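[Solved] Which block belongs to which protein?

Original post:
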Amino acid sequence: MELANGKPQTRSGPECGLARKPPEESTCFERPCFKWYTSPWSECTKTCGVGVRMRDVKCYQGTDIVRGCDPLVKPVGRQACDLQPCPTEPPDESCQDQPGTNCALAIKVNLCDHWYYSKACCRSCRPPHS
């Protein structure tokens, strides 16, 4: 490029010499990007109280499942879900502990929260009257 009075001079094709002209475009190959994809969330594992919901999280490059996505931005694959508090049934005054169930031990090791023992030992597990 030549300058005339501090300004660049443009020349037409024949003066420049077409052999030295750089190409205006060239082909380039781009690899598809690595990208995290997630499936929709599953239903919550509980209908009340705290459960878990899950989804698939996979790394794709184009249409291929690969390793290589940034682990720092990986979406979570499971999370807690708390839809609504579970209803608490009023204590049944007439309930009796099932014979053959060691309810004293169930109370000692805090098993009254477990659905089986709360029913089988409903008398022993009943909250004390205030």
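(Second protein starts here: sequence line, then its structure tokens.)
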Amino acid sequence: MDKDTVSIYFVRAALAHLAPEALPAVLRAAGIPAEMLAHRQARVPARAFAALWLAVAHQLDDEFFGLDARRMKVGSFALMCHAVLHCGTLGRALRRCLRSFSAFLDDLHGELAVDDDRAVITLHNRIADPADRRFAEETYLVMLHGLMCWLIGRRIQLAHIAFGHALPEEAREYRVMYGEDLAFGAERTTIEFDAALLEAPIIQTEATLKSFLRSAPQSVFLKYKSTDSWTARVRRRLRRCLGGQAGWPTLDDLALEFHVAPSTLRRRLEAEGGTYQSAKDDLRRDAAIHHLCHSRLSIAEISTLLGFQEPSAFHRAFKKWTGSQPGEYRALRADGMSAPGADATARRPATAPALLSG
């Protein structure tokens, strides 16, 4: 399986409205060391971020991280899921979902319009603080899009996404979370998709809803990530090289396998905001973090599994990827921390609400 990681930016943003005295317990529940917050390039396993979301929500009694003037109380998202489950089509469910968000939140709401063959959701945001405003929209869209995809059982390809803020450092994260066709600096944040999907039938049931909620929030922000992009295809192919048994193919090798010219593959990756090398680096980075967090393998063994000829090369690469050495990263995780999500899972009721990626 792919081992996803989440930028420390999202961790810091999720903690922004938490009282200082609550911070240690929340970080401990997620298995995230406080020292990691100071590393701008740091990343955490996706399951750790999911546990953090739950812990913050229960601490604030707010599934929306304290970003809105009104709390989205714990249980709100689950209630929304039940409310839209029997709407019949995605269009009816989406309209009810948007009304539900408007009932739960005061400062942010979405509006659906159909323009010929495009369905357009526009966000209206009255949050004044720029950082809160941005993170609120990121959170809203991930929750909304994840629920939409789950309802019809497949990823809804977003044809275009325009954000009402400037290009952020984490723009590469957006391509995984939302899609490839991104624009920034728009008057309002909007997402567009094929209007024909509004007639898609809802295929979920009460039984599948229980499973969806039990695995949330990870089921919302990971299960329906983009899998059909060229970057995703390259990553899936390179994943077979993890373990050190197979050599890493060149871009020319992959182009031959994909039946396209090397220049075509290069252009398609660049159009998605990446390169062959960045896809390879991201895959090895996430695998390295997984092994450092969840295995007893030595750093030399991890280096070999990831295909590095020398441990020193792995050390240099990991420092470039995360801002810390592999030994430092592992020491932070092991220094009195519980397993990611252990505390949050222990406290979580069987019907905990669904809440809200490399």
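Accepted answer:
You had them paired correctly. Confirming on the second one: Confidence is low (pLDDT under 50) at residues 336-358.
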